[in-house]
Amino acid sequence: VALGTGLVAAWQWYRSSKVAIDPGWGLPGTGAYIEPVDPELRALDLQVAADHAFQRTGRLNASASLWTAASVLFSAASAIAGALSSTT
Question: Could you tell me if 34 and 25 are in contact, meaning their C-beta atoms sit under 8 angstroms apart?
Fold first, then answer.
């Protein structure tokens, strides 16, 4: 169980490191890339996209930290059970 929860935690940490900032400037169905001409609108689009990416990263990090805590808990329980079983 500790191994499984540890692997899930590692996967969540990995996914949180791969979140991209996508301002959504692609034209649907065309593959074309277009960005605002106005520098203020461009900066606003990038800021909103960065905020969304940071929120997603934060959620993934929170999930990964909980999975890590579960892995540590199960590892400790395994160590305690092993120590108790060797003394009896």
Answer: yes
CB neighbours (10 Å) of residue 64?
A: 20
Condensed to tens digits (0 to 9), the pLDDT of residues 5-52 reads 999 999 999 999 999 998 888 777 777 778 888 889 989 989 999 999
**Following DSSP, what letter does each residue of 10-65 receive, concatenated?**
HHHHHHHHT-------BPTTT--B---SSHHHHHHHHHHHHHHHHHHHHHHHHHHH
Q: Is the dihedral of CA 18, 23, 27, 31 positive or negative?
A: negative
